[in-house]
Amino acid sequence: MSFGYLDLDGTPLRGRLLGVGGSGVVVERDGTAFKLPRRRSGDSQEQIARNHRFIEHEKEVHRRLQGCYGVVRCLSLASPGMIQMEVMRKGNLYAYLRHARMTRNYPSRDVQLSWFRDLARALVGIHDRRVMFVSFFTRNLLLSMDLTIKFSDFGRSILLPPEIDMRTTERYGYSISMDIGQFGMILYQVITGGQYCDFGFVFADDHPGPEEPVWPARAALPETYDLWLGPLIDKCWTQGAFEDARSLLAELESVTITISHSHLSTNAHPRDHNRPRLNIRRRIPAIPIPELLTLLLQGIQILAAHNPTLHEPQQDSKHPHATRHAGDGIDCVVVRSHNPIQFVYFRLRDPVGDPDQHAEEVGLEHRRRAAVVRQVPLTLLTWYCIPPWAALLWR
Predict the structure, then answer these.
(1) Burial of 306 per CB tally in 10 Å (0-12, 13-18, 19+)
(2) Segment 252-308, tens digit of pLDDT
(3) pLDDT score of 342
(4) 16-85 maps to which CATH number?
(5) What is the SS3 assignment for the chain?
(6) Highest-confidence range of 147-161, 211-225, 368-382, by mean pLDDT?
(7) What's the whole-number mean pLDDT along residues 241-253?
Protein backbone atom coordinates (compact mmCIF):
# COMPACT_ATOMS: atom_id res chain seq x y z
CA MET A 1 0.00 0.00 0.00
CA SER A 2 1.46 3.35 -1.07
CA PHE A 3 -0.44 5.65 1.37
CA GLY A 4 -0.29 8.34 -1.34
CA TYR A 5 3.51 8.25 -1.67
CA LEU A 6 5.16 8.06 -5.08
CA ASP A 7 8.14 6.12 -6.36
CA LEU A 8 11.09 7.73 -8.13
CA ASP A 9 9.31 7.46 -11.48
CA GLY A 10 6.13 9.11 -10.15
CA THR A 11 4.08 5.88 -9.93
CA PRO A 12 2.44 4.74 -6.65
CA LEU A 13 5.02 3.46 -4.20
CA ARG A 14 5.37 -0.33 -4.24
CA GLY A 15 6.16 -2.56 -1.25
CA ARG A 16 5.33 -2.71 2.45
CA LEU A 17 5.71 0.68 4.10
CA LEU A 18 8.20 0.47 7.00
CA GLY A 19 8.61 4.10 7.96
CA VAL A 20 8.19 7.72 6.97
CA GLY A 21 10.57 10.52 7.89
CA GLY A 22 10.82 14.21 7.17
CA SER A 23 12.56 13.68 3.85
CA GLY A 24 12.33 9.95 3.06
CA VAL A 25 10.15 6.87 3.08
CA VAL A 26 11.27 3.28 3.66
CA VAL A 27 9.56 0.27 2.05
CA GLU A 28 10.32 -3.44 2.04
CA ARG A 29 10.61 -5.27 -1.26
CA ASP A 30 11.70 -8.90 -1.46
CA GLY A 31 13.29 -8.87 1.99
CA THR A 32 15.26 -5.65 1.42
CA ALA A 33 14.54 -2.18 2.81
CA PHE A 34 14.57 0.65 0.24
CA LYS A 35 14.82 4.26 1.34
CA LEU A 36 13.53 6.79 -1.23
CA PRO A 37 12.89 10.53 -1.23
CA ARG A 38 9.53 11.39 0.29
CA ARG A 39 7.23 12.44 -2.53
CA ARG A 40 3.48 12.91 -2.99
CA SER A 41 1.38 14.22 -5.82
CA GLY A 42 1.14 17.98 -5.53
CA ASP A 43 4.63 18.42 -4.05
CA SER A 44 6.55 21.28 -5.58
CA GLN A 45 9.71 20.65 -7.56
CA GLU A 46 11.61 22.44 -4.80
CA GLN A 47 10.32 19.99 -2.17
CA ILE A 48 11.14 17.00 -4.36
CA ALA A 49 14.66 18.30 -5.04
CA ARG A 50 15.25 19.04 -1.35
CA ASN A 51 14.27 15.52 -0.27
CA HIS A 52 16.42 14.06 -3.03
CA ARG A 53 19.41 16.07 -1.72
CA PHE A 54 18.89 14.64 1.76
CA ILE A 55 18.92 11.09 0.39
CA GLU A 56 22.14 11.77 -1.54
CA HIS A 57 23.65 13.34 1.58
CA GLU A 58 22.69 10.28 3.61
CA LYS A 59 24.38 8.06 1.04
CA GLU A 60 27.61 10.00 1.52
CA VAL A 61 27.35 9.50 5.29
CA HIS A 62 26.78 5.76 4.83
CA ARG A 63 29.85 5.53 2.61
CA ARG A 64 31.85 7.04 5.48
CA LEU A 65 30.25 4.68 8.00
CA GLN A 66 30.58 1.42 6.02
CA GLY A 67 31.40 -1.35 8.50
CA CYS A 68 30.79 0.85 11.55
CA TYR A 69 29.55 -1.05 14.58
CA GLY A 70 25.91 -0.47 15.47
CA VAL A 71 24.89 1.18 12.18
CA VAL A 72 22.19 -0.41 10.04
CA ARG A 73 23.90 -2.26 7.20
CA CYS A 74 23.67 -0.85 3.67
CA LEU A 75 23.40 -3.38 0.85
CA SER A 76 23.72 -0.95 -2.04
CA LEU A 77 24.29 2.77 -2.59
CA ALA A 78 24.66 2.56 -6.37
CA SER A 79 21.14 3.54 -7.48
CA PRO A 80 20.47 7.30 -7.74
CA GLY A 81 18.05 8.58 -5.09
CA MET A 82 17.85 5.21 -3.34
CA ILE A 83 19.48 3.40 -0.40
CA GLN A 84 19.15 -0.38 -0.01
CA MET A 85 19.47 -1.64 3.58
CA GLU A 86 18.92 -4.69 5.73
CA VAL A 87 15.43 -5.05 7.23
CA MET A 88 15.26 -4.72 11.02
CA ARG A 89 12.33 -6.99 11.82
CA LYS A 90 11.40 -5.55 15.20
CA GLY A 91 10.94 -2.07 13.77
CA ASN A 92 11.91 1.14 15.49
CA LEU A 93 12.40 1.71 19.20
CA TYR A 94 9.49 4.15 19.44
CA ALA A 95 7.00 1.53 18.22
CA TYR A 96 8.59 -1.14 20.41
CA LEU A 97 8.22 0.96 23.58
CA ARG A 98 4.66 1.91 22.66
CA HIS A 99 3.74 -1.75 22.23
CA ALA A 100 5.47 -2.56 25.54
CA ARG A 101 3.30 0.02 27.30
CA MET A 102 0.15 -1.52 25.85
CA THR A 103 1.11 -5.12 26.70
CA ARG A 104 3.02 -4.34 29.91
CA ASN A 105 5.92 -6.40 28.61
CA TYR A 106 8.80 -4.01 29.23
CA PRO A 107 12.44 -4.80 28.44
CA SER A 108 14.45 -5.76 31.51
CA ARG A 109 17.26 -3.62 32.84
CA ASP A 110 19.73 -6.10 31.39
CA VAL A 111 18.27 -5.51 27.92
CA GLN A 112 18.15 -1.75 28.44
CA LEU A 113 21.76 -1.63 29.60
CA SER A 114 22.88 -3.71 26.60
CA TRP A 115 21.09 -1.21 24.33
CA PHE A 116 22.74 1.77 26.00
CA ARG A 117 26.19 0.21 25.76
CA ASP A 118 25.70 -0.79 22.12
CA LEU A 119 24.49 2.71 21.23
CA ALA A 120 27.40 4.35 23.04
CA ARG A 121 29.86 1.98 21.35
CA ALA A 122 28.30 2.79 17.98
CA LEU A 123 28.43 6.51 18.75
CA VAL A 124 32.17 6.20 19.42
CA GLY A 125 32.61 4.71 15.94
CA ILE A 126 30.38 7.33 14.33
CA HIS A 127 32.34 10.18 15.91
CA ASP A 128 35.65 8.50 15.06
CA ARG A 129 34.57 8.69 11.41
CA ARG A 130 33.91 12.41 11.88
CA VAL A 131 30.12 12.24 11.71
CA MET A 132 27.70 13.98 14.08
CA PHE A 133 24.52 11.94 14.24
CA VAL A 134 22.17 14.83 15.21
CA SER A 135 18.89 12.89 14.87
CA PHE A 136 18.65 11.12 18.23
CA PHE A 137 15.03 10.03 18.16
CA THR A 138 13.58 6.66 19.13
CA ARG A 139 12.13 6.35 15.60
CA ASN A 140 15.68 6.42 14.23
CA LEU A 141 16.89 3.48 16.33
CA LEU A 142 15.99 0.09 14.86
CA LEU A 143 15.72 -3.36 16.46
CA SER A 144 16.41 -6.76 14.96
CA MET A 145 14.60 -9.96 15.91
CA ASP A 146 17.14 -10.65 18.68
CA LEU A 147 16.67 -7.04 19.96
CA THR A 148 20.02 -5.84 18.68
CA ILE A 149 19.77 -2.06 18.36
CA LYS A 150 21.27 0.01 15.51
CA PHE A 151 21.41 3.60 14.30
CA SER A 152 19.54 4.57 11.15
CA ASP A 153 18.42 7.72 9.30
CA PHE A 154 21.51 9.83 8.70
CA GLY A 155 19.76 12.37 6.45
CA ARG A 156 20.36 15.15 8.99
CA SER A 157 23.77 13.97 10.13
CA ILE A 158 26.75 16.29 9.74
CA LEU A 159 29.71 15.02 7.74
CA LEU A 160 33.05 16.58 8.78
CA PRO A 161 36.55 16.49 7.27
CA PRO A 162 38.49 13.38 8.36
CA GLU A 163 41.35 15.34 9.93
CA ILE A 164 39.20 17.53 12.19
CA ASP A 165 39.22 17.35 16.02
CA MET A 166 35.65 16.40 16.96
CA ARG A 167 35.98 17.55 20.57
CA THR A 168 36.52 21.18 19.60
CA THR A 169 34.43 21.39 16.44
CA GLU A 170 31.00 22.94 15.90
CA ARG A 171 28.89 22.97 12.75
CA TYR A 172 25.70 25.00 12.51
CA GLY A 173 26.05 25.44 16.27
CA TYR A 174 26.17 21.68 16.74
CA SER A 175 28.85 19.63 18.55
CA ILE A 176 29.44 16.14 19.92
CA SER A 177 28.17 17.46 23.27
CA MET A 178 24.77 17.86 21.62
CA ASP A 179 24.92 14.23 20.49
CA ILE A 180 25.66 13.19 24.07
CA GLY A 181 22.87 15.41 25.39
CA GLN A 182 20.41 13.77 23.02
CA PHE A 183 21.81 10.38 24.03
CA GLY A 184 20.65 11.23 27.56
CA MET A 185 17.19 11.90 26.10
CA ILE A 186 17.14 8.33 24.71
CA LEU A 187 18.20 6.93 28.10
CA TYR A 188 15.35 8.80 29.76
CA GLN A 189 12.73 7.63 27.27
CA VAL A 190 13.76 3.97 27.46
CA ILE A 191 14.06 3.88 31.25
CA THR A 192 10.66 5.54 31.75
CA GLY A 193 8.97 3.28 29.21
CA GLY A 194 8.66 5.85 26.44
CA GLN A 195 7.81 8.94 28.49
CA TYR A 196 8.14 12.02 26.28
CA CYS A 197 11.29 14.10 26.52
CA ASP A 198 12.19 16.89 24.10
CA PHE A 199 15.74 18.19 23.87
CA GLY A 200 14.41 21.20 22.00
CA PHE A 201 15.85 21.35 18.48
CA VAL A 202 14.18 22.77 15.36
CA PHE A 203 15.59 21.48 12.09
CA ALA A 204 16.34 23.78 9.21
CA ASP A 205 15.46 23.05 5.59
CA ASP A 206 18.65 24.26 3.98
CA HIS A 207 21.33 22.24 5.80
CA PRO A 208 21.64 18.92 7.66
CA GLY A 209 21.90 20.21 11.21
CA PRO A 210 19.38 21.86 13.52
CA GLU A 211 18.49 25.53 13.23
CA GLU A 212 20.27 27.65 15.87
CA PRO A 213 20.49 24.89 18.48
CA VAL A 214 20.51 26.06 22.08
CA TRP A 215 21.42 23.83 25.00
CA PRO A 216 18.21 23.44 27.01
CA ALA A 217 18.06 24.82 30.54
CA ARG A 218 18.05 22.05 33.13
CA ALA A 219 14.69 23.25 34.44
CA ALA A 220 13.18 22.59 30.99
CA LEU A 221 14.15 18.91 31.16
CA PRO A 222 12.48 16.20 33.26
CA GLU A 223 13.57 15.36 36.80
CA THR A 224 15.75 12.27 37.06
CA TYR A 225 16.59 12.09 40.77
CA ASP A 226 14.52 8.93 41.34
CA LEU A 227 15.31 7.12 38.07
CA TRP A 228 17.66 4.26 37.48
CA LEU A 229 20.78 5.84 35.86
CA GLY A 230 19.40 9.25 36.79
CA PRO A 231 22.85 10.70 37.64
CA LEU A 232 24.21 9.48 34.30
CA ILE A 233 21.30 11.09 32.43
CA ASP A 234 21.93 14.34 34.30
CA LYS A 235 25.59 14.14 33.34
CA CYS A 236 24.62 13.75 29.68
CA TRP A 237 22.46 16.86 30.06
CA THR A 238 25.32 18.84 31.63
CA GLN A 239 27.28 20.45 28.82
CA GLY A 240 30.90 19.31 28.81
CA ALA A 241 30.47 16.75 31.62
CA PHE A 242 31.48 13.99 29.19
CA GLU A 243 34.56 14.81 27.14
CA ASP A 244 33.46 12.50 24.34
CA ALA A 245 31.47 9.36 23.58
CA ARG A 246 34.31 7.17 24.89
CA SER A 247 33.98 8.58 28.38
CA LEU A 248 30.21 8.00 28.15
CA LEU A 249 30.79 4.38 27.11
CA ALA A 250 33.29 3.87 29.94
CA GLU A 251 30.73 5.02 32.49
CA LEU A 252 28.06 2.75 31.03
CA GLU A 253 30.50 -0.19 31.09
CA SER A 254 30.99 0.40 34.82
CA VAL A 255 27.26 0.14 35.57
CA THR A 256 26.21 -2.98 37.44
CA ILE A 257 22.67 -4.14 38.11
CA THR A 258 22.54 -5.08 41.78
CA ILE A 259 18.98 -4.17 42.86
CA SER A 260 16.59 -7.09 43.21
CA HIS A 261 13.06 -6.63 41.89
CA SER A 262 11.73 -9.99 43.07
CA HIS A 263 8.90 -8.27 44.95
CA LEU A 264 7.64 -6.63 41.77
CA SER A 265 5.86 -8.18 38.82
CA THR A 266 8.15 -9.08 35.92
CA ASN A 267 5.82 -7.04 33.71
CA ALA A 268 5.73 -4.04 36.06
CA HIS A 269 5.93 -0.59 34.55
CA PRO A 270 9.47 0.84 34.46
CA ARG A 271 8.34 3.55 36.91
CA ASP A 272 7.75 0.81 39.48
CA HIS A 273 11.35 -0.39 39.10
CA ASN A 274 12.97 3.02 38.86
CA ARG A 275 11.35 4.90 41.73
CA PRO A 276 11.64 4.33 45.47
CA ARG A 277 7.84 4.34 45.67
CA LEU A 278 4.87 2.97 43.77
CA ASN A 279 2.87 5.59 41.96
CA ILE A 280 -0.53 4.28 43.03
CA ARG A 281 -2.39 7.29 41.69
CA ARG A 282 -1.38 6.47 38.11
CA ARG A 283 -1.67 2.69 38.35
CA ILE A 284 -4.80 1.95 40.42
CA PRO A 285 -7.94 3.71 41.69
CA ALA A 286 -7.93 5.74 44.91
CA ILE A 287 -8.51 3.78 48.14
CA PRO A 288 -11.96 4.54 49.63
CA ILE A 289 -11.80 6.54 52.86
CA PRO A 290 -13.46 3.88 55.13
CA GLU A 291 -11.10 1.18 53.87
CA LEU A 292 -8.17 3.54 54.18
CA LEU A 293 -8.99 4.27 57.84
CA THR A 294 -9.33 0.54 58.51
CA LEU A 295 -5.92 -0.02 56.97
CA LEU A 296 -4.40 2.73 59.11
CA LEU A 297 -5.89 1.24 62.29
CA GLN A 298 -4.61 -2.23 61.39
CA GLY A 299 -1.14 -0.83 60.96
CA ILE A 300 -1.26 0.98 64.30
CA GLN A 301 -2.45 -2.24 66.00
CA ILE A 302 0.52 -4.12 64.57
CA LEU A 303 2.82 -1.40 65.82
CA ALA A 304 1.21 -1.28 69.26
CA ALA A 305 1.60 -5.06 69.63
CA HIS A 306 5.35 -4.63 69.31
CA ASN A 307 5.46 -1.60 71.63
CA PRO A 308 8.05 0.36 69.63
CA THR A 309 10.09 3.22 71.02
CA LEU A 310 11.06 5.53 68.17
CA HIS A 311 14.31 7.46 68.10
CA GLU A 312 15.47 10.49 66.09
CA PRO A 313 14.79 10.39 62.31
CA GLN A 314 17.66 9.22 60.09
CA GLN A 315 18.23 9.03 56.35
CA ASP A 316 17.12 5.64 55.10
CA SER A 317 19.90 3.86 53.17
CA LYS A 318 17.47 1.85 51.04
CA HIS A 319 15.45 4.88 50.01
CA PRO A 320 17.51 8.05 49.34
CA HIS A 321 14.41 10.23 49.44
CA ALA A 322 12.97 8.73 52.61
CA THR A 323 13.28 9.25 56.35
CA ARG A 324 13.75 6.33 58.74
CA HIS A 325 12.37 6.52 62.26
CA ALA A 326 14.19 3.58 63.84
CA GLY A 327 12.94 2.11 67.11
CA ASP A 328 13.20 -0.95 69.32
CA GLY A 329 12.06 -3.85 67.18
CA ILE A 330 10.57 -1.85 64.32
CA ASP A 331 11.41 0.60 61.54
CA CYS A 332 9.06 3.22 60.15
CA VAL A 333 10.15 4.56 56.77
CA VAL A 334 8.34 7.59 55.39
CA VAL A 335 8.80 7.91 51.62
CA ARG A 336 7.88 11.38 50.39
CA SER A 337 6.90 12.42 46.89
CA HIS A 338 6.34 15.76 45.13
CA ASN A 339 2.59 15.14 44.90
CA PRO A 340 0.11 14.75 47.77
CA ILE A 341 0.79 11.02 48.04
CA GLN A 342 2.89 9.81 50.95
CA PHE A 343 3.89 6.19 51.48
CA VAL A 344 4.71 4.75 54.87
CA TYR A 345 5.76 1.18 55.46
CA PHE A 346 6.62 -0.50 58.74
CA ARG A 347 9.35 -3.13 58.80
CA LEU A 348 9.43 -5.41 61.86
CA ARG A 349 12.90 -6.30 63.07
CA ASP A 350 14.25 -9.31 64.90
CA PRO A 351 15.87 -7.82 68.05
CA VAL A 352 18.49 -10.58 68.24
CA GLY A 353 19.11 -11.42 64.60
CA ASP A 354 19.42 -9.77 61.23
CA PRO A 355 17.15 -6.66 61.19
CA ASP A 356 15.67 -7.79 57.86
CA GLN A 357 15.51 -11.51 58.61
CA HIS A 358 11.74 -11.55 59.10
CA ALA A 359 10.94 -8.65 56.83
CA GLU A 360 9.93 -8.76 53.18
CA GLU A 361 9.14 -5.72 51.14
CA VAL A 362 5.70 -6.05 49.63
CA GLY A 363 4.20 -3.81 46.95
CA LEU A 364 0.70 -3.17 48.22
CA GLU A 365 -1.63 -3.62 45.28
CA HIS A 366 -5.14 -2.25 45.41
CA ARG A 367 -6.75 -5.67 45.04
CA ARG A 368 -4.50 -7.36 47.63
CA ARG A 369 -3.95 -4.75 50.29
CA ALA A 370 -6.15 -6.37 53.00
CA ALA A 371 -4.49 -9.77 52.48
CA VAL A 372 -1.06 -8.16 52.70
CA VAL A 373 -1.91 -6.59 56.05
CA ARG A 374 -3.17 -9.90 57.45
CA GLN A 375 -0.57 -12.30 56.11
CA VAL A 376 2.87 -10.68 56.39
CA PRO A 377 4.67 -8.79 59.17
CA LEU A 378 4.97 -5.69 56.97
CA THR A 379 2.33 -3.07 56.28
CA LEU A 380 2.36 -0.45 53.56
CA LEU A 381 -0.07 2.31 54.44
CA THR A 382 -1.11 4.56 51.58
CA TRP A 383 -3.20 7.71 51.83
CA TYR A 384 -3.82 11.02 50.14
CA CYS A 385 -3.30 14.53 51.50
CA ILE A 386 -2.12 13.32 54.93
CA PRO A 387 1.24 14.76 55.99
CA PRO A 388 4.08 12.35 56.83
CA TRP A 389 4.00 13.23 60.54
CA ALA A 390 0.60 11.51 60.76
CA ALA A 391 2.50 8.22 60.56
CA LEU A 392 3.85 8.85 64.05
CA LEU A 393 0.47 9.27 65.79
CA TRP A 394 0.95 6.09 67.77
CA ARG A 395 3.81 7.66 69.75
Answers:
(1) middle
(2) 999 887 654 433 444 455 555 444 333 333 333 455 666 667 766 766 666 566 554
(3) 38
(4) 3.30.200
(5) CCCCEECCCCCECCCEEEEECCCEEEEEECCEEEEEECCECCCCHHHHHHHHHHHHHHHHHHHHHCCCCCECCEEECCCCCCEEECCCCCEEHHHHHHHHHHHCCCCCHHHHHHHHHHHHHHHHHHHHCCEECCCCCHHHEEECCCCCEEECCCCCCEECCCCCCHHHCCECCECHHHHHHHHHHHHHHHHCCCCCCCCCCCECCCCCCECCCCCCCHHHCCCCCCCCCHHHHHHHCCCCCCCCHHHHHHHHHCCCCCCCCCCCCCCCCHHHHHCCCCCHHHHCCCCCHHHHHHHHHHHHHHHHHHCCCECCCEECCCCCCEEEEEECCEEEEEECCCCCEEEEEEEECCCCCCCCCCCCCCCCCCCCHHHHHHHCCEEEEEEECCCHHHHHCCC
(6) 147-161
(7) 93
Please check whether residue 344 is in contact with residue 333, taking contact to mean a CB–CB distance below 8 angstroms. Answer: yes
Domain 91-254 sits in CATH at 1.10.510.10
| Ranges in the chain annotated CATH 3.30.200 | 16-85
Backbone angles phi, psi at 257, to 5 degrees: -100, 105
pTM of the complete model: 0.64
Residues of the chain with CATH 1.10.510.10: 91-254
- What is the percentage of the chain residues whose pLDDT exceeds 70? 61
Residue 354: HSE in the Cβ half-sphere, 13 Å Cα cutoff: 5
